[in-house]
Design a protein that fits this description.
The structure is a homodimer. By secondary structure, chain A is an alpha+beta fold. Chain A has eleven helices and 17 strands.
C-alpha cells in the first residue's frame, strides 16, 4: 500500500510544479485522489462507481471529501488531515442524488477554499462541483504568457512517470501475485481444459498470494496455425495439442498493476515453434540489455524488432512495451515513433511478440524498474514454452 | 445484456421528462452511458478507470464518444447510431493526456450540438468537457419558474427506479450466478476453512455460471458469541464449530447486481440459534407477504421489525432492504422513516437480520420484482442454517 511519507512526497512535488498564487487544488480523478492520499474505493465494494474528491492546500493540508458509504468502501488506511464526510445513507431515511453529497462536502469546508486562489483538476472534477468554486478557481494555467496553458491532470500524469519507493513496493506486491498465476498455469494447461478454466485457476492463485479479491485481467487465449492472433478475455474454447496459450495479464492491487506474459505450448512444440520462441526471447533480452535512464524508447522498440527481423519473423507488429502504474498503458511508450526517453523511476514492461499465420502466436514479457544506477527486473516468472 | 429495444425505450422515457427546448443531452456517468446504449467499459480490462460520453438528440440519435482503447474495453455489443472515437493510442507514437481524447471527440461532432440548446449531466461530465459546450448547454433546468431546478442525473436516477424487461433479464442472470455461489458455500463451509477460502470458492462458482470474470463482493464473515456483528471482505480467520457464516454478496454482471444472503451454521446450531433463525426467516416472510406496488416502504421495515421484536430480538437494527440495479443501495429504501412507496418495476431486496451479543449474528435475504399484478421472487437460493 502507499505510505503516508510517499503521499507527502508526492504532494510536495506537485506544489513545486504549480504557480505561487495557487493556494489550493481540488482533485477528482480517483487515481489521483489515491496517488496523494491512498484513499481508494475498493472495486470489490458497494461503492465501486462512486466518486470522491481530495482538496490539497499549499500549507500542506489534505482533506478528503466523500459520502459516508464511499468512505466505508476504502478498505486500507489512508492519509488525510481532515475529512468532510456527508451522511448520504443513514439506514433511517430515503436517499437523494448521491452526487449531491460531494457538493455538500465542498460547501462544508468553504472556509478553506473561499476567497483563496485555487485550481481544479478539470478532467476529474464534475461540472456540478466545479460550478461551486468557479469564482475562486481556474481549470488551466500557464507559467508565463508564452506558454500553452496546461491542466492539473496533465501535471499529475507527468509526476506519475517517476515512481516513489512506496509505489515500487506496491508494484512488487502485484508482481508476486502475478507470478503465482503463471506458476499455476503450468499445472493446469493441457488438452481439454478451456481458456476460461485456465483463467479461473490463474485468478485464484493470484488472489491467494494477494490475500484478497483483486482484478485479474488481460489476454487468456490460445493461438495456433489457424488462429495466429487472439487476445482478450478467455472463451470456452478447449485447448488442443499444438495450441500456444498466451497468458498476458495484470493483477491490480489497490489500483497498481503488474503486467507480464508467458506463452505455454500445449504438448511438445515443433522445431519451428521453438525457433519462433527463441527469436521472441532474444528480442526481449536485446531490449532489456540496453535499459537505462536516458535511452530513447524508440531504440528499445528497434532493439527488439531487429532481432525478430533478423530471424525472419519481424518487424515487431506492436509496441515493445510501455509504462506501468495506475493506468494501462501509461508513458513511456516503447514504439517506433516514440518521443519518450527513459528516466529513473520509470517502471516499464518489455513484451515482444510474434504471430505467424500457419504457425501461431506468442509473446514474452518482463517488468523492470529503471534506477539511477541501472535496472532492476521486477518480474521473476519462468519464460518458456515448457516448464 | 441490455437490448437495443430497451435502450430506445429508456431514451424515449428520458425525452418525455425534459423541456421541449432541449434538443440534445450529454451524459457522462458510466452507469448512465450504459443505461441508454449498453456501452460499458469492462472492469476486467485495461481501461477500467477511463471515461466515455454519450450524446443523445431529441431526433433519436445516440452518439458514443470515447478513445480507441476505451472502445476496445467494451466486451459486449452496444447500440449507438454514430461513434466519435479518437485514436489516443496507436502503437506507433507517444501518448498525451487521455482525457483530451474526449474533448477531441466532442469537437469532432460539433455540427450536432453547436448552436442547439443542450443539457449536460453535471454529475458525470467533467469541467473540461463541460467548458467546451458552455455557450450552448445548461447543467440544470426547471419545468416552470416555481420549481426548484433539477439535473439530468437526478432525472435519470428517477427513471432507473422502474426496471425495463431487459434490465430484469440481466438481473436474473446475476441471480443465477449468485445462487451457484450459495450452493457451493454449503459444500465448503466447515471448521478449519478460512473466510477467504470460502470467498474463493463462491467467487469461482458464480463466475462459472456467469461464464466470465465478474465482480463478487459483499460480506463474507463469521460471527459468534464473541463477535456478533461482522461485515465486509473475507479475512484469513478459520471457521470454528459454533460460528455462523454470513454470506451476503452481490454478483455484478455488466453493471447490474444481485444481492442476497444466507447464514450457514458451522456444525449443528443450538436451540437458541435456531430460534434466532426462525425469527429472521419469519421477519423476511412477513415483509415479503405484503410486497405490492403502492405499499409504503416504511411499512415493509415495520413488518419485518415487529416479528423480530415479538420474538425478543428486535427492533431491526438496519434497513429491511433497498432497490437493486446499477448502484448499491438505490431507491426505494426500506427503512423506518422512508418516504418511498413501491412502484411496478422496482427490483428490491429484503434482508432482515439479527445480531445478539453472546449468541451471534445472522441475516437472510431474497430479491423480488414488483409487477403490475403482484410480486415475483427472483432469487431461489436455499435459506437455512443447514442444507
Amino acid at each position: 500500500m502507499l505510505t503516508q511519507a510517499g503521499c507527502r512526497e508526492r504532494q510536495a512535488r506537485l506544489w513545486q510544479r504549480l504557480p505561487d498564487e495557487i493556494s489550493w487544488v481540488l482533485i477528482g480523478d480517483s487515481r489521483h485522489v489515491q496517488y496523494f492520499s491512498n484513499f481508494r474505493i475498493n472495486p470489490f465494494s458497494f461503492s465501486a462507481d462512486q466518486k470522491s474528491l481530495l482538496l490539497l492546500t499549499r500549507a500542506g493540508q489534505a482533506i478528503l471529501l466523500a459520502d459516508n458509504f464511499a468512505k466505508r468502501s476504502a478498505t486500507v488506511p489512508y492519509f488525510v488531515d481532515q475529512e468532510a464526510i456527508v451522511p448520504w445513507y443513514t439506514h433511517k431515511r430515503s436517499v437523494t442524488n448521491r452526487d449531491d453529497a460531494l457538493c455538500q462536502a465542498l460547501s462544508d469546508i468553504e472556509n478553506v477554499w473561499s476567497g483563496e486562489t485555487g485550481l481544479i483538476e478539470p478532467e476529474g472534477v464534475s461540472e456540478m462541483v466545479a460550478s461551486m468554486v468557479a469564482e475562486d478557481a481556474a481549470w488551466q494555467f500557464a507559467d508565463d504568457e508564452d506558454e500553452q496553458p496546461t491542466t492539473l491532470g496533465t501535471v499529475i500524469r507527468s509526476l506519475r512517470r517517476s515512481k516513489h519507493a512506496d509505489e515500487v513496493e506496491l508494484l512488487k506486491t502485484c508482481m508476486r501475485a502475478c507470478e503465482a498465476g503463471h506458476r499455476r498455469a503450468f499445472d493446469v494447461i493441457q488438452p481439454g481444459v478451456s481458456e476460461f478454466e485456465v483463467y479461473l485457476e490463474v485468478q485464484r492463485a493470484a488472489q491467494e498470494v494477494a490475500g484478497g479479491p483483486c482484478i485479474v485481467y488481460g489476454d487468456f487465449r490460445a493461438t495456433n496455425a489457424m488462429l495466429h492472433k487472439a487476445g482478450g478475455l478467455p472463451t470456452q474454447y478447449r485447448l488442443q495439442h499444438g495450441d500456444l496459450f498466451i497468458l498476458d495479464y495484470s493483477v491490480i492491487i489497490h489500483g497498481y498493476r503488474s503486467d507480464f506474459t508467458n506463452t505455454i505450448s500445449v504438448g511438445p512444440p515443433s522445431d519451428k515453434i521453438v525457433a519462433q520462441f527463441e527469436a521472441c526471447r532474444d528480442a526481449l533480452h536485446a531490449a532489456a540489455a540496453i535499459l537505462k535512464a536516458g535511452v530513447a524508447c524508440r531504440d528499445l522498440w528497434k532493439a527488439a524488432s531487429i532481432v525478430l527481423e533478423s530471424r525472419g519473423f519481424g518487424p515487431l507488429a506492436h509496441h515493445a512495451g510501455h509504462g506501468l502504474g495506475l493506468e494501462h498503458p501509461e508513458p513511456p511508450i516503447l514504439v517506433s515513433e516514440s518521443d519518450d526517453v527513459l528516466i529513473a523511476g520509470d517502471v516499464i514492461t518489455l513484451e515482444p511478440g510474434c504471430y505467424i499465420d500457419g504457425l501461431g502466436g506468442m509473446r514474452f514479457e518482463h517488468n523492470y524498474l529503471i534506477t539511477e544506477s541501472g535496472t532492476e527486473q521486477l518480474s521473476q516468472h519462468h519464460i518458456g514454452l515448457m516448464r
